[in-house]
């Protein structure tokens, strides 16, 4: 009897425990947990391109079109579109029945307003929209873009960097920098913004009315905010986080992540990035192209690729990444040849002085950027051999922007840049002289070549791909001859995802896109 | 006691003013433009100018300072440039996490540090004392971020006993007591990391104060009167030594608070320490100045409390 009571109690206890455990699981929504490096200042893709802003906004917004994992343009808010034979009129036919997260209907007026008033005026990549002459909304389901001239890269820009569609009813007549919806975004994307707990997490809930039926597969999306790379990777290793997109995954951790069980590395098929330094061509002696070319002959870029990015980086010859259809394969690389470098430096009138040193090179980089530091260390050794003393200058972000981009107190400053998907978006910004401003990620060398400017304008209006490629080939030849920048290597860094938890597409571009969030699904589906 | 409190309060006012003035100008001495950091890659010049005008960054510094003082006097400490929200609401929402972390580590450090200090004093000169003293010296010298990372690798990644970062589990939403337990689990590693420095300080000072107290004449008298060793240690010696311990805790409160900067980064703890770190990196002048003022007030308050506690414990201080 006693035994019976005990066993019943035991059974009850166990049963209750199981019920509690399984009950908790069943009641818990299907969550996918990602990570970002810092609190996003804005959640608005139309005015800020900072990585944390881009990532935090990506699940919320849609655009007229989007780029899929293969790099093809497909419909997003637009169901289909027609391009006139002269390439100057784009007519987008919008989906029926799309609503904003606040329940109001989405119409062509929203697209007209977002492209015309926000993206064309404030988007950091607004240059890619400058061929647009007028945007009309003849009826609620149709948007017509009239261009001043044909633009080959327009669809890529609209689908990626410059095309986020925001609700007109919440933005019209407001100051975009102060609009409260910068922190509380309302979009038409797969997830609705729920809350932002600074320093901790951003929470999103599934958009039940998302226009792609059955998507997204997760009920909730959470971005944890973990600035320290070691803490981020510890949390990922423990399974506290399901996905880390490429810029949050330190390159130095990739070999370890590759060995982790149940984790997949995902490489983008369409994006390419480069570790690239601006050379300050207004400063002597770097105003002399022979000195710049000497750097190319002296620095062992293969060693940089193999030691800093083992197995991840490709060589980069010229300003356009090799995976681009517009890449000029005829360019020849500067051979590693210290003797040639020495000869060029002598020829440029830079003889060795005391201790064999010709001059100093101030190399500026972000103090937290371990790859840039390693590149600098390799470079310092290589250049010491030809009499150039590299002054490694790690700086915090604020000081780096001030010294390098505002005050231009540098000889070389290095960062990683996204170069795609189209060079009009990712590459032209570094070499077109209409893009010289005291800010980062523009033409900061600053390089002025009227012929290059003219060729960029010429290619933009080409509707014949072969003709456009020919002009781009010429641009690459000239830039590679003048070398105002120093591309160390080109790479496609992977994002990591826990396959035991989620399957789907990640990292179609550098940061997660709508594609990732809309089509990610719990494992086993 | 009231007089002591009023005197301390009167002394803190000029101190706070000095902190406001110093931090206002010091943080602006560092190179870097908050507008450029806020605007991200390749911002339009108009957008940059708009941000600068909005936060008064286009004005001369003395004018910015006067405007700041005028507003601060009414309790308005400005708006964070990067986050675009009132400085005090940012600080206020992150402060509780830091309070939880700081108090947990101070309680841990006080109890363990005192116990180790008393133990070392009681066994002064023998092996146990050497071990405790050497351990304290080691704990005092090891940088917090390093210890923190080792603890994460061992207890979170390798042994899988405790979470690696954050204050709550993201996977599941807990409520009620389960939520408290969840925070507790997340608190263990950061609190231990933060406690180590203070713990070793307390142990060292308590040991010295206890040895000094144990050598006093009244201990000899008490021993002669046949007081038990335990009562002698805790009732007679410790009550005299505890003033030193409380003073150390009060004095080191500022060090513990600044230690949260590193610990909160290593453990992804969403507190005020990370607000400091981020504000420095982003040149978020209003937030940085506000956070400095706020934490100096907190440190001044903690020192005042420690003085009052000492006065309560030791009548000689009250005079």
From TrEMBL, chain A:
Q: Which residues form the signal peptide?
A: none
Q: Which family does it belong to?
A: Belongs to the bacterial solute-binding protein 5 family.
Q: PANTHER family per the record?
A: D,D-DIPEPTIDE-BINDING PERIPLASMIC PROTEIN DDPA-RELATED, PERIPLASMIC BINDING COMPONENT OF ABC TRANSPORTER
Sorted keywords for this record are: Signal
Q: Which InterPro entries match?
A: Peptide/Ni-bd, SBP_5, SBP_5_dom
GO BP, one example?
peptide transport
Q: What name does UniProt use for this protein? A: ABC transporter substrate-binding protein
Span of domain Solute-binding protein family: 73-436
GO molecular function list = peptide transmembrane transporter activity
GO cellular component entries: ATP-binding cassette (ABC) transporter complex; outer membrane-bounded periplasmic space
Subcellular location per UniProt equals: Periplasm
Q: From the record, what ranges are coiled-coil?
A: none
Q: What organism is listed for this UniProt entry?
A: Rhodovarius crocodyli
């Amino acid at each position: 009897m006693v035994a019976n009571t005990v066993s019943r109690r035991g059974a009850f206890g166990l049963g209750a425990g199981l019920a509690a455990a399984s009950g908790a699981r069943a009641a818990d929504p299907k969550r996918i947990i990602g990570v970002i490096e810092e609190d996003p200042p804005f959640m608005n893709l139309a005015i800020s391109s900072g990585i944390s802003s881009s990532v935090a906004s990506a699940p919320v917004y849609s655009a007229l079109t989007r780029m899929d994992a293969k790099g093809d343009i497909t419909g997003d808010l637009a169901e289909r579109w027609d391009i006139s034979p002269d390439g100057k009129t784009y007519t987008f036919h919008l989906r029926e029945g799309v609503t904003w997260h606040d329940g109001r209907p989405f119409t062509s007026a929203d697209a007209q307003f977002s492209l015309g008033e926000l993206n064309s005026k404030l988007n950091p990549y607004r240059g890619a929209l400058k061929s647009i002459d007028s945007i009309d909304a003849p009826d609620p389901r149709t948007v017509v873009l009239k261009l001043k001239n044909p633009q080959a890269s327009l669809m890529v820009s609209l689908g990626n960097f410059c095309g986020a569609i925001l609700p007109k009813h919440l933005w019209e007549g407001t100051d975009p920098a102060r609009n409260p919806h910068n922190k509380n975004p309302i979009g038409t994307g797969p997830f609705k913004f729920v809350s932002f707990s600074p320093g901790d997490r951003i929470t999103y809930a599934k958009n039940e009315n998302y226009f792609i039926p059955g998507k997204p597969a997760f009920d909730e999306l959470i971005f944890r905010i973990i600035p320290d790379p070691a803490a981020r990777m510890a949390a990922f290793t423990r399974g506290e986080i399901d996905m880390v997109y490429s810029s949050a995954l330190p390159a130095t951790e990739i070999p370890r992540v590759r060995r982790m069980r149940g984790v997949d590395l995902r490489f983008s098929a369409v994006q390419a990035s480069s570790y690239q330094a601006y050379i300050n061509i207004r400063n002597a002696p770097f105003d002399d192209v022979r000195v710049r070319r000497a750097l190319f002959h002296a620095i062992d870029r293969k060693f940089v690729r193999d030691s800093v990015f083992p197995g991840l980086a490709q060589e980069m010859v010229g300003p356009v990444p090799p995976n681009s259809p517009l890449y000029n394969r005829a360019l020849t690389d500067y051979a590693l040849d210290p003797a040639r470098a020495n000869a060029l430096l002598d020829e440029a009138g830079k003889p060795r002085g005391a201790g064999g040193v010709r001059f100093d090179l101030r190399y500026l980089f972000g103090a937290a950027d371990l790859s840039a530091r390693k590149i600098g260390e390799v470079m310092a050794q290589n250049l010491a051999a030809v009499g150039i003393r590299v002054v490694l200058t790690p700086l915090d972000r604020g000081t780096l922007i001030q010294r390098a981009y505002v005050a231009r107190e540098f000889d070389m400053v290095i960062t990683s840049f996204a170069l795609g998907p189209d060079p009009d978006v990712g590459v032209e910004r570094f070499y077109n002289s209409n893009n010289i401003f005291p800010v980062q990620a523009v033409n900061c060398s600053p390089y002025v070549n009227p012929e290059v400017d003219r060729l960029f304008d010429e290619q933009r209006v080409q509707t014949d791909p072969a003709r456009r490629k020919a002009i781009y080939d010429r641009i690459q030849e000239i830039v590679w001859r003048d070398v105002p920048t120093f591309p160390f290597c080109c790479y496609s860094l992977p994002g990591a995802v826990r396959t035991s938890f989620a399957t789907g597409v990640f990292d179609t571009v550098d940061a997660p896109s709508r594609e990732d969030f809309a089509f990610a699904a719990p494992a086993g589906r | 006691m009231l007089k002591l409190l009023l005197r301390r309060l009167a002394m803190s006012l000029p101190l706070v003013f000095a902190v406001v003035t110093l931090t206002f100008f010091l943080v602006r001495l560092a190179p870097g433009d908050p507008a450029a950091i806020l605007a991200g890659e390749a911002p339009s010049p108009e957008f940059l100018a708009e941000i600068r005008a909005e936060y008064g960054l286009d004005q001369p510094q003395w004018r910015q300072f006067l405007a700041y003082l005028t507003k601060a006097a009414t309790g308005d400490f400005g708006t964070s440039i990067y986050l675009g929200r009132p400085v005090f609401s940012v600080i206020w929402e992150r402060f509780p996490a830091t309070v939880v972390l700081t108090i947990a580590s101070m309680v841990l450090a006080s109890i363990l540090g005192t116990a180790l200090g008393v133990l070392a004093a009681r066994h002064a000169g023998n092996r146990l004392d050497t071990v405790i003293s050497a351990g304290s010296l080691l704990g005092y010298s090891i940088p917090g971020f390093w210890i923190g990372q080792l603890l994460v690798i061992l207890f979170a990644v390798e042994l899988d006993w405790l979470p690696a970062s954050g204050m709550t589990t993201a996977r599941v939403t807990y409520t009620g007591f389960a939520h408290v337990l969840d925070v507790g689990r997340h608190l263990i590693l950061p609190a231990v990391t933060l406690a180590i420095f203070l713990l070793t300080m307390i142990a060292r000072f308590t040991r010295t104060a206890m040895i000094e107290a144990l050598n006093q004449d009244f201990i000899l008298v008490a021993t002669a009167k046949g007081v038990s060793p335990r009562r002698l240690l805790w009732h007679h010696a410790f009550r005299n030594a505890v003033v030193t311990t409380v003073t150390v805790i009060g004095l080191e409160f500022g060090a513990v608070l600044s230690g949260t900067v590193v610990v909160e980064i290593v453990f992804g703890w969403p507190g005020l320490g990370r607000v400091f770190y981020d504000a420095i990196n982003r040149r978020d002048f209003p937030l940085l100045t506000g956070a400095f003022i706020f934490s100096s007030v907190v440190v001044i308050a903690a020192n005042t409390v420690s003085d009052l506690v000492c006065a309560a414990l030791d009548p000689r201080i009250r005079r």
